[in-house]
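User: Teach me something about this protein's shape.
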Amino acid sequence: MKALAAQARTLLERWGVAPTHASFVESIAKAIPILSILLTLIVTVNGISSGNPVQPPALEQVRTDVVNKINYERGNEGLLTLSPELELHTAAQAIAQRNADTISEEDVPDPEGNLVVLQQNLPYANTNADTIVDRFLNSPKHAKLLLANNYEAIGVGVAYKDDRAWIVVEFTQLAGDSVESTE
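Assistant: First, the predicted structure itself:
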C-alpha cells in the first residue's frame, strides 16, 4: 500500500498537484482499486472489450421508470400521481417511432383539445428516467406542463435510431384545459 501511495504522490507531483496532506494521497491510493473495478465494469458494459455494440435500454423499463420518476416529481409538488394508460403508451410509441424514422419532432394533432405532448431526443446512452425527466423540468415551459394539476393519465414512447433515443410523453387533461407542447 505504501508503494502505491508513493506512486500516486509521484504522479500527482508530475501533474503539478502537490498534495498537502498525506491522507489525501492515501485516499487516492485506496480509491485506485475501486476505480479500476468501475472502469472494467464500464468497459464491459459498453461492449468495448468484446466488440459488441451497446444495446439501448429496453422500452418497457424506460417507460416504467419515466412514469415513476414523473409521479415522484409530481408527489414532491403535492400533485396526484398519474395512471399509465395503454392507449396513451401506444400513441406515444407511434409518435416516438415516427420521430426516430424522420429524425424530427413534429406537432401532434389534438382534435379533442385534451392532450399534452412533450418530446425530446438524446443520445441513447443517456436514456434513463432521471435524464429524461430532468431535461423536461429544466425547461420552465415544460416543467409547467409536466407539473400541471389537471392530468388524468400518462403514456410514454421511446424509439431508437442510430445512437439517438426519441422520447414522447403524453398526458390527457380535462377537456378545455389542454395545451400542446413539443421540444
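Now, about its shape. The first strand starts at residue 83 and ends at 84. The mean pLDDT is 78. If you'd like, I can walk through any region in more detail.
User: That's plenty for now, thanks!
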